[in-house]
């Protein structure tokens, strides 16, 4: 029995092993490659997506867990907070290699959607699951504050 | 990759090809591309004394640049759509060189930055060699320094042709035409965009010696935020394409059962259960191990789990980190190959105080965010590969050799990579060759991506070798340095491969850099090196030998300053008469950090300075301690990298180097037990996270010196600066890394 998914507002069906991690379905069945593989054990956050507005490490969640729920990937970001985050990321040139940044942006967006004026501690808590080996952390923090300021304007 | 490669013979690629038995072409040899132009650096009154015309700076012809229509050389083309395309010969792994190369062209072309696009060059060493290496490759923090004149000349050539075309069309002297923001104007009111003039310009003869701007005329170079990163938008919306994202018809994915330990040999395997996994198409033996090939990554991983493999690990049982360290410590007490001898003129004052220390550094994995991978496709008598080809010359030759094809039947597509830190600058091209081997093993039936899992990447990879240093140093009655005996033990990175030609008199320069040629005046130094060989494959890791030598030098100098009762800053400055640029960054960092001013209780400052890749970096770390655990609160960094082409990229690299180095100092260690890597993923091979990142302030020294590297030189001073602060806080000197071993950070 195929699993029905709502990915970025589009209804999709997946007729494979229901234990397949959501990550590989998004990337290889649906062709949405902005979500990245980094560790496979929910340690690095490169695979972060939103499921019903909450962050989820898609490398470690079976696709069946997303059945009938609303999945958003980097390609489907459209909220006001998301646009503010992406703009701040570009304005501050946060990225270096960029490989982790889809996940960083997904985590930052989820934070600002819930808490438009986060403290540094809020940022630490929300972003600690996302590793950046280029160590762009200082700019990530600055960009979240900048996006927050833009949302308040 | 290393700057010392500039000692390579100009014919290095040809010699390597001969050694590998690789043919360049299956066709009769004809004269290949010729250099049509000279760079025109001669006689430029641009105020930089170091500028000299080099034959190597000549601009190769446009064969690699495609249609323009204006494509006067291999590095730039101007389209009728008014877009300027810069062809980047260097690999982008995050360090921002794509933006840097484009800004060099845009500067001299007077292009509108919003109309500048970039693409990555094909593999062609004749056109796109690194002028510091003689081969095509990125590393040694050399991308901007070797391209500085070449890419500017490329832009100046295109500009001159556009101006000449406008002068012809408008029948006015070229000198009266103004070019700015991709638009040509004349006082008469005539006006044309570069796009409108591109076709006419393509009929102009490229000038031999296009003038380059003076520093005073720069609009992009050194102008902060004038050229934002070209790769920011695509990396913020998920559209940037990395190797893992390549889509090809029928693309298969392969993962390998790698040898579980270094030196293990394949005995046999049983693929029956693996082949039962839905989606698995092939299970094939390749020289590297057993490849499970499938229609998708998950199926390949499931197939690998079901695969039964027998390995002979008898050769690995003795390979153990603790055993190795004990052996290295013993070796460090014995004479090895000398790399430094006391100068006869060295003062013969006797040391009255000596400090003796043994330092131990672990194996380190690069742990790039994107685990290693490569796509290979054998079809129609040729091979195509897609990967983060950081060193296309090696990857091209070795891919051709693995495929049994001449080089002109091999086409590399170079993509951005999700980090490298040295991992993809690999003279063995391991990630490329394994993909070719798998493509061959499935008979070229389909394109295939070999994907390392995180565990493969961490556990089966190349490492920064383990090193032990033993140092005895002393000061005389006047507090001056009077003794420095230095012994280093660790694998040679360059031995055993094509880089071995760089080893001179038994000394791999990457094992001793930062000690043998130090910024300090140490004529009394006696140095000796041991280079044991192991089954573990060694590789450069961001800043190479400086990763360990700077720690030893800068913590030992600090200890000697304390022993002499001198301020560590003043003690260093007294030894830096011959390195004014090192002294200048040290003073700048100290001043900006408030060195010598009182800190709040529980906070101490440590300082360090180091030269690497011809750049000078000093850092002051503010470190606090609570309940025996430390936190680096702030790092003030001063950098002198010559002309600062993109100041914000330089700041970003310093920030990144500091975070990367701190991560290793706190946590990073690959331990070997019976030949197997203990750490396999981020749960045990920890990486620093956002809450651990210190506040970083970067100060760039204004300079008219030749531009030098920024991708690596921010790494070396960080660890000793932090360690020196920790010592001030009263903790024992840390001589075995990482800090987790000393209990200074939470594990």
Descriptive notes:
The complex is a heterodimer of chains A (153) and B (747). Chain A has helices spanning 22-29, 80-91, 101-114, 120-127, 137-152, and strands at residues 3-7, 10-14, 48-51, 54-57, 70-72. Chain A has 153 residues and is α+β, with helices and mostly antiparallel strands. Chain A has 2 domains: 3-76, Ubiquitin-like (UB roll), CATH 3.10.20; 80-152, [2Fe-2S]-binding domain (DNA polymerase, domain 1, Orthogonal Bundle). The longest helix of chain A is centred in the last third of the chain and has 16 residues, at 137-152. Chain A is globular and about 45 Å long. Chain A starts with a strand and ends with a helix. Chain B has 3 domains: 33-235, 2-Layer Sandwich (Aldehyde Oxidoreductase, domain 4); 243-314 and 372-451, Aldehyde Oxidoreductase, domain 4; 321-363 and 463-742, Aldehyde oxidase/xanthine dehydrogenase, molybdopterin binding domain (Aldehyde Oxidoreductase, domain 4, 2-Layer Sandwich). The two termini of chain B are 32 Å apart. Chain B is of the alpha+beta class. Residues 3-7 and 28-57 of chain B have low confidence and may be disordered. Chain B is 27% helix and 21% strand. Chain B has 18 helices and 27 strands. The chains are: A alpha+beta (153), B alpha+beta (747).
Could you write a compact summary of the structure shown?
The complex is a heterodimer of chains A (153) and B (747). By secondary structure, chain A is of the alpha+beta class.
């Amino acid at each position: 029995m195929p699993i029905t998914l709502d990915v970025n507002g589009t209804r999709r069906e997946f007729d494979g092993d229901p234990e397949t991690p959501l990550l590989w379905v998004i990337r290889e069945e649906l062709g949405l490659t902005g979500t990245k593989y980094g560790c496979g054990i929910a340690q690095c956050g490169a695979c972060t997506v939103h499921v019903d507005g909450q962050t989820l490490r898609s490398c470690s969640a079976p696709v069946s867990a997303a059945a009938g729920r609303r999945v958003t990937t980097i390609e489907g970001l459209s909220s006001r907070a998301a646009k503010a985050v992406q703009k701040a990321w570009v304005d501050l040139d946060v990225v270096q290699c960029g490989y982790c940044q889809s996940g960083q942006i997904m985590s930052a967006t989820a934070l600002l959607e819930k808490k438009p004026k986060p403290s540094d501690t809020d940022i630490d808590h929300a972003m600690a699951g996302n590793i950046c080996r280029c160590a762009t952390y200082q700019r990530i923090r600055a960009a979240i504050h900048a996006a927050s300021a833009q949302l308040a304007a | 990759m290393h700057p010392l490669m500039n000692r390579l013979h100009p014919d290095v690629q040809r010699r390597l090809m001969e050694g590998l038995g690789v043919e360049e072409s299956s066709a009769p040899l004809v004269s290949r591309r010729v250099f049509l132009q000279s760079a025109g650096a001669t006689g430029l009154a641009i105020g930089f004394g170091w500028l000299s015309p080099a034959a190597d700076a000549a601009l190769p012809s446009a064969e690699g640049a495609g249609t323009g229509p204006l494509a006067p050389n291999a590095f730039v083309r101007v389209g009728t759509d008014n877009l300027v395309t810069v062809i980047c010969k260097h690999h982008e792994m995050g360090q921002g060189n794509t933006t840097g190369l484009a800004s060099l062209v845009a500067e001299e072309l007077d292009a509108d930055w919003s109309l500048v696009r970039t693409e990555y060059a094909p593999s062609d060493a004749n056109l796109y060699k690194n002028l510091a290496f003689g081969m095509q490759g990125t590393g040694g923090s050399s991308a901007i320094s070797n391209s500085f004149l070449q890419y500017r000349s490329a832009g100046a050539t295109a500009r001159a042709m556009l101006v000449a075309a406008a002068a012809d069309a408008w029948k006015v002297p070229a000198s009266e035409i103004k070019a700015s923001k991709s638009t040509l104007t004349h006082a008469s009111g005539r006006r044309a965009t570069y796009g409108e003039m591109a076709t006419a310009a393509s009929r102009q003869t490229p000038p031999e010696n296009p003038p380059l701007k003076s520093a005073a005329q720069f609009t992009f170079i050194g102008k902060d935020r004038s050229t934002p990163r070209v790769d920011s938008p695509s990396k913020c919306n998920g559209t940037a394409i990395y190797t893992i994202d390549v889509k090809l018809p029928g693309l298969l994915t392969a993962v390998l059962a790698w040898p579980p330990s270094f030196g293990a040999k394949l005995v046999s395997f049983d693929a029956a259960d693996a082949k039962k996994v839905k989606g698995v198409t092939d299970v094939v033996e390749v020289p590297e191990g057993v490849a499970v090939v499938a229609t998708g990554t998950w199926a390949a991983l499931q197939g690998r789990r079901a695969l039964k493999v027998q390995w002979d690990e008898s050769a690995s049982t003795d390979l153990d980190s603790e055993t190795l360290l004990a052996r290295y410590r013993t070796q460090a007490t014995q004479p090895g190959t000398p790399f430094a001898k006391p100068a006869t003129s060295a003062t013969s004052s006797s040391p009255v105080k000596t400090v003796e220390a043994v330092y131990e550094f672990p194996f380190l994995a690069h742990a790039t965010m994107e685990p290693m991978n490569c796509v290979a496709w054998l079809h129609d008598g040729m091979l195509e590969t897609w990967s983060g080809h950081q060193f296309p010359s090696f990857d091209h030759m070795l891919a051709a050799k693995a495929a049994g094809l001449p080089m002109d039947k091999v086409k590399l597509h170079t993509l951005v990579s999700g980090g490298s830190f040295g991992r993809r600058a690999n003279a063995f091209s391991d990630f490329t060759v394994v993909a070719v081997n798998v493509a061959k093993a499935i008979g070229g039936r389909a394109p295939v991506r070999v994907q390392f899992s995180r565990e493969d990447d961490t556990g089966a990879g190349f490492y920064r070798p383990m090193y032990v240093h033993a140092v005895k140093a002393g000061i005389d009655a006047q507090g001056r340095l009077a003794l420095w005996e230095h012994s280093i033990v660790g694998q040679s990175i360059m031995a055993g491969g094509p880089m071995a030609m760089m080893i001179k008199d038994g000394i791999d320069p990457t094992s001793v850099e930062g000690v043998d040629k130090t910024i300090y005046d140490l004529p009394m130094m006696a140095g000796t090196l041991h280079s044991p060989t192991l089954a573990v494959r060694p590789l450069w890791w961001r800043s190479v030998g400086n990763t360990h030598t700077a720690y030893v030098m800068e913590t030992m100098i600090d200890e000697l300053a304390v022993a002499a009762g001198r301020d560590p800053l003043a003690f260093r400055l007294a030894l830096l008469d011959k390195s004014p640029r090192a002294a200048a960054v040290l003073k700048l960092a100290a001043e900006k950090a408030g060195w010598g001013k009182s800190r709040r209780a529980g906070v101490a400052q440590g300082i360090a300075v180091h030269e690497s890749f011809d750049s000078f970096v000093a850092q002051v770390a503010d470190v606090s301690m609570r309940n025996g655990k430390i936190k680096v609160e702030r790092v003030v960094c001063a950098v002198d990298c010559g002309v600062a082409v993109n100041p914000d990229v330089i700041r970003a690299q310093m920030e990144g180097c500091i975070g990367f180095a701190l991560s290793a100092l706190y946590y990073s260690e690959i331990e070997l037990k019976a030949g197997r890597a203990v750490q396999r993923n981020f749960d045990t091979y920890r990486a620093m996270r956002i809450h651990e990142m210190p506040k970083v302030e970067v100060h760039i020294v204004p300079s008219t010196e030749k531009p030098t590297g920024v991708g690596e030189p921010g790494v070396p001073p960080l660890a000793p600066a932090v360690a020196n602060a920790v010592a001030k806080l009263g903790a024992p000197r840390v001589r075995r890394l990482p800090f987790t071993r000393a209990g200074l950070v939470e594990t």
